[in-house]
C-alpha cells in the first residue's frame, strides 16, 4: 500500500524530491538509508501521477529512478559486506600475527595443552595448532556458511588456556569471561582480542578479580590484544546462575520473562518491537470484524520469527493469533534459544 497525498504542498515536495534525485550524480552519492526513502517517494510519485495531472510527468521519471536506486542499494550492500568482513577478520588476524601464546618464537603452551577458543577466528586456531596445542572451539553465535555447532556454555572440561574474540557487548563479554573462568585452571593464560571501536578496552575493568591483567597491551592498528592470568576467585557459574528473571507486558498484563546477558534489547521489549506489536493488535482487531476474519481462511497459519531473541515478538504474535498460529523461531545466538 502506497500513501496517497491530498495536500498540494506535499505533492509539490514529492515532485521536487523525485526530480532532484533523478540526477545520476545525486544517486551515486546516496547511502542505503537515503535510497530507501527516495524509493518510497518514487512509488508515491508513480501512484500520484496516475491521478494528478501536475504529477503526471513523474511517472516516466520514477520508473528508471527506481531501477537506479535498486542498483545503488545493491552496490552499497556489497560495500558494507566487504567492510564488515574486513572488520570482523581484523582482530583474529592481528592476534595470530602477534602470537601472544609464544615468546621470542618459544611456545608458552606445552605440546599437549588444550586451548579453548571463543568465537570465530580460523587464523587464531591455525596459529595455536602450530604450537602443538589441541584447539577446542566454543561459539555462542552462529556465523558464516560453515554450519559450526553453537552452544551457550563452554564444552565440559578443564582447559590450559583460552583465546577470546571480544563479543558485541560488555554484557556478553562478562558472561563469556565467567563461563571461561569456570573452565580454566588457576594461572592459565587468557588472550582477549578485539577492536577499540567495539569496546575491547572495557575488558580491562571486567577482567579484574577473575583474571590478573598483564601489561603491555599489544596493538595492531585499532586492534588490541590483552593477556591475563586466571586467579583463584570463584566465577559466577553455571549457566543457570545467569538467568535474569524480569516482567514484560504484551498487552494482557505482566508476565514472567527470562533472559541471558548479551541478548537484543536486554531480552526485553524495545520501542520498535512494541510499536510492531501495537500495530499488529490494531490489524487483528480490524480483521476480527470481518467475516471471516483475515487469517481464518489460512490452513495452519505459520509464522517465522527471524532473529527472535528471547521470543518477545513471537509471544506477542501467538497471543494475537492463537489458536491458529504455529511459530518457528530462529536466531544466530544460541543463548536466545535456551
From TrEMBL:
Give any Pfam family that matches.
Answer: MTS
Domain spans labelled Methyltransferase small: 258-338
InterPro entries assigned to the protein according to its UniProt record, in alphabetical order? SAM-dependent_MTases_sf, Small_mtfrase_dom
**Record's superkingdom?**
Eukaryota
List the Gene Ontology MF annotations in alphabetical order: methyltransferase activity
User: Can you say what this protein is called?
Assistant: Methyltransferase small domain-containing protein
Organism from which the protein derives: Polarella glacialis
